[in-house]
Amino acid sequence: MSRFRLGILTDEVSQDLREAIAFAQQFGLQALELRSVDNRLLHQMEEEAIEGIRLMVDQSGLSICGLSAPIFKCELDQNRYRAAVHSHCTAIKRIAHSRIQFLGKSCVRGGAAEDCLAD
């Protein structure tokens, strides 16, 4: 058995999760990474919508390999971007407390802050 599962980032295929699932099944993929569904980021969704996503994926026979969070895709200079940094920290807490619990994932992928890329 392979240690790796092939998967896709669902919103790169479609914002409609059913279409992304059908695509993954058509090409023999085993996993899905979630970032946004129905043009909504996961951390902005209600618990009922997240539960619906989990049920749909479970019924498809695919697994969720990770969550892609739109965090720290900004400059981190706290003097200039304090509100942005605070917003990203709030998103992390929301993702950590509810999305990981509902979707059963401990892997959350985020972006690199622009400050980290300088030099």
UniProtKB/TrEMBL annotation:
Gene3D superfamilies: Divalent-metal-dependent TIM barrel enzymes
Superkingdom of the organism of origin: Bacteria
InterPro entries noted in UniProt: Xyl_isomerase-like_sf (IPR036237)
The name this protein goes by in its record: Sugar phosphate isomerase/epimerase
Source species: Paenibacillus alginolyticus
